[in-house]
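Q&A log
Question type: sequence-to-structure
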Amino acid sequence: MVMIEKYIGRSAEIIYQDSKGNFTKRRITVYSVRDGQVRALDWDKRAFRTLLSDRILSALPVAVRAV
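Response status: OK
Response body:
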């Protein structure tokens, strides 16, 4: 299990398994983790998402570049 709590307030690239069993790679910014749910901003969808923490298979930090 990935300790996604350490990414609160930070950006990460995750591998996520959805409810249908499909694997996706997502770039997110984690805002909160509570009761097994992760509230995050999905960069590609440009929307907030609620993800189940037990479906996050891996997470790596993402460096945010200044423009």
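Response note: The beta strands are 11-17, 23-34, 37-42, 47-52, 56-61.
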